[in-house]
Q: What sequence folds into this?
């Protein structure tokens, strides 16, 4: 069945298309009776405005694009909730795409969003993204872009971040304060900026507190999964049975590591203390509960949309645009996996 048009409504009621359009928009020069008749018929016929035509007329689609590396991660699900909560307040729909940590897929998805004429794009980069031409090309087309969490420092746009280096420093310092002498680190892939910064924070905390940095205690993970947590916990025990503390890049991996330690009879925190990152809801229910860095996903999502919305309006009004980087606060949540609980 073909969509109902303004022309059909106009012909049925014996009035002009212009009058129908005005009635649906509550123009004051259309009588209350005519407005009522038009709206009742539109509802009966299930009339829907032509979104493409509206976009051409207003130069706004009232949609934004969101590209994230993965949906299943607790942090990103919190970000999505924050973005949608703010977007709904402003009458925007959010097209959510998952890059699966793939640079090539991320590029294709950005092209797709451009073809949908989105008003702006929010993005957290895939681990595989090392070339940023697709992002610069987007901005060259005057489409607002805001990056969050996994960002590229050299791309000139607004960003919402945390201080990953400082947070990692705090996590590692907590292990030192709890009496740990040999502290390992399960880091993420080499490329993402947040993985780099968390590693640097770990390393800096060691050297600042008279602990020797040993590169053999740093394990590079690719998938950042539960299974990698269990696997590398086993490798750590095999390679370094003297390690008594470990800072892990994300909670899902840390929970996998604790599960493996429990399975092997390694007591946490008596034999080895564990600190994670993100404060996933499972962190508080695993046994022992996980000490972690609280990463404010919901607030990050809300903040990212607010920045994007402001840029959309600034560009529409031909005002001068100033890019802004917002740094959100993190907190250490101390639980049973460290000795200071």
A:
């Amino acid at each position: 069945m073909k969509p109902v048009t303004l022309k059909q409504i106009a012909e049925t009621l014996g009035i002009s298309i212009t009058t129908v359009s005005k009635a649906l928009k509550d123009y004051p020069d259309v009588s209350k009776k005519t407005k009522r008749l038009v709206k009742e018929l539109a509802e009966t016929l299930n009339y829907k405005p032509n979104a493409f035509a509206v976009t051409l007329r207003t130069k706004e689609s009232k949609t934004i694009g969101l590209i994230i590396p993965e949906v299943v991660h607790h942090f990103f699900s919190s970000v999505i909730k924050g973005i949608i909560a703010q977007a709904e307040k402003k009458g925007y729909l959010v097209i959510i795409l998952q890059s699966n940590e793939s640079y090539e897929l991320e590029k294709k998805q950005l092209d797709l969003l451009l073809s949908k004429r989105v008003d702006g794009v929010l993005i957290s980069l895939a681990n595989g993204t090392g070339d940023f031409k697709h992002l610069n090309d987007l901005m060259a087309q005057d489409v607002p872009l805001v990056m969050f969490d996994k960002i590229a420092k050299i791309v000139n746009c607004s960003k919402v971040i945390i201080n990953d280096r400082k947070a990692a420093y705090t996590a590692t310092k907590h292990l030192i304060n709890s009496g740990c002498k040999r502290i390992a680190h399960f880091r993420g892939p080499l490329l993402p900026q947040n993985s780099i910064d968390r590693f640097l924070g770990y390393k800096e905390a060691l050297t600042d507190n008279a602990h020797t940095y040993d590169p053999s205690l740093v394990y590079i993970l690719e998938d950042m999964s539960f299974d990698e947590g269990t696997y590398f916990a086993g490798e750590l025990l095999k390679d370094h049975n003297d390690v008594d503390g470990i800072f892990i890049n994300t909670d899902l991996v840390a929970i996998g590591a604790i599960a493996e330690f429990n399975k092997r009879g390694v007591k946490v925190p008596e034999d080895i203390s564990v600190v994670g990152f993100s404060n996933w809801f499972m962190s508080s229910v695993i046994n022992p509960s996980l000490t972690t860095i609280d990463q404010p996903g919901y607030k990050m999502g809300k903040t990212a949309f607010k920045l994007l919305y402001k840029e959309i309006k600034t560009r529409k009004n031909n005002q001068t645009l100033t890019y802004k980087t917002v740094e959100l606060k993190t907190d250490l949540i101390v639980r049973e996996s460290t000795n200071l609980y």
The first strand starts at residue 63 and ends at 68.
